[in-house]
Amino acid sequence: MDEVVAEKVVQRAPPLLLNEQQQAAVECARAPIRVVAGPGTGKTRVLTRRVAHLVATGARASSVLALTFTNRAATELRERLEGEVGMADAQSISVGTFHRVCLTMLRDDVEALESPIRKGFAVYDQAAMIKLCGRCISGKPPVGLGWDKSEVKPARIQSVISSLKNAGFDASTYAQLTAEGHGDRIVSRVFGLYEKTIQQRNAVDFDDMLSLTARLLEYSEETRVKYAKRWRHLLVDEFQDTNGVQYDVLKLLAKDSVFVVGDSDQAIYGWRGADYENQARYDSDFGATLLKLERNYRSAQPILNAASAVVASTSRQRDALELEGRAGTLVPSVVELEDQDEEARWIADVCVRAEGDVAVLYRTNAQSRALERELLKAGVSYQLLHAKGFFERKEIRDVLAYLKLLVHPKDDDAFERVANVPPRS
């Protein structure tokens, strides 16, 4: 007789309570909304609950599109939605980055666009883009321009072409700008050959995913209506990090129910074409209602006061927030030191005198070397998180083994380590 297995009941944790501002954002009208979410104010929770609220109040899950800035954020949002609306509805909701969603539309409808690109196109990542730029620069005519890659750097040219595409230019419009005396002739010539070659190969690059989709939605009314009917509710995370083409895609897709979350004070991707002024454009184009999240759950009030003082000095237009955090008495201080070695010694001295654990944050892994050296000198034990210690890296251990052999020629362990480093035939 077959054994009957009882269905496993998944116990969900009760949802966290929302504060008054969060609740207002979640339950606001199905209209153009812009939420200014300060750091640590629970914007992802609000975005998730907003989707759940839409579904709970009658919206079909398949009619919701949530756009994120990174794949990681998309994965986190989907996982949270599973806990809010259940597995079936969560899988019906469209969640992804602008690039992923645009690629999906191109895969299905690229032939509605007057373009040499056909279905089944290849996708070039950044490495392939740089390689193709190099071929266009140094290849013999007509394949390339026959230039010296040491003088015309492929990576730099690719970066400029990428920025131009994100600003809405293609090779022909930039060539026209250059002819009028406003562009770079070298970039223009490489751009033209690059675009011609990639189209001949039936391929698109990372930036084409956005620009071609914007053109597709603009010039194919049938395609635009198709997706506008599919996605009646649009939500965008990290809106301050969108670029001009991404904003065009949103504007072409959106109807009435649009919900964007962002904060111009957290705009850090201008070097990649992001434009925080899209927030002002959105307010003007959509007549958006502005809501704010100001209760910070991450930092103590003195930290928030210091951060607010820094960003208040900027000359650009911003949405003023009165961030409220938990109580705290330690006031942040700024210490100016001569160089990284003096900085490391100062940090080590603080660690020696401190009561309890100390966290040290740095921007790049290369900065750990000086810190580790001074902490070892001071006899301070430490643990590196998500990184390998400078003195634990293979190349450093190899060099140290050579130095040990110079001092102790009979050190067998050191000899075994470097006997074939570098490899010998």
Structure described in brief:
By secondary structure, this protein is an alpha/beta fold. The chain has helices spanning 20-26, 43-56, 71-85, 87-92, 98-109, 126-138, 154-166, 171-179, 185-200, 208-219, 221-230, 244-253, 278-286, 301-312, 340-353, 368-377, 394-407, 412-418; strands spanning 33-37, 64-68, 94-97, 122-124, 203-205, 233-236, 257-262, 289-293, 295-300, 324-326.
In total, how many beta strands? 10
Question: Overall mean pLDDT score?
Answer: 90
User: Which H/E pattern describes the elements?
Assistant: HEHEHHEHEHHHHEHHEHEHEEHEHHHH
| Largest sheet descriptor | 6 strands, parallel
How would you write the strand order of the largest sheet?
3-2-6-7-1-8
Secondary structure class reads alpha/beta
Distance between termini? 67 Å
Kindly estimate the percentage of residues that lie in beta strands according to DSSP: 5-15%
Shape: globular
Proportion of residues in helical segments? 40-55%
Rg from alpha-carbon coordinates:
27 Å
Total number of helices? 18
Ranges where pLDDT stays below 50 over 5 or more residues in a row are 1-14
Write structural notes for this entry.
The structure is a single chain. The N terminus is likely disordered. It contains 18 helices and 10 strands. It is α/β, with parallel strands linked by helices and 425 residues long.
Keywords:
single chain, 425 residues, alpha/beta, 6-stranded parallel sheet, two-stranded parallel ribbon, 10% strand, globular, disordered N terminus
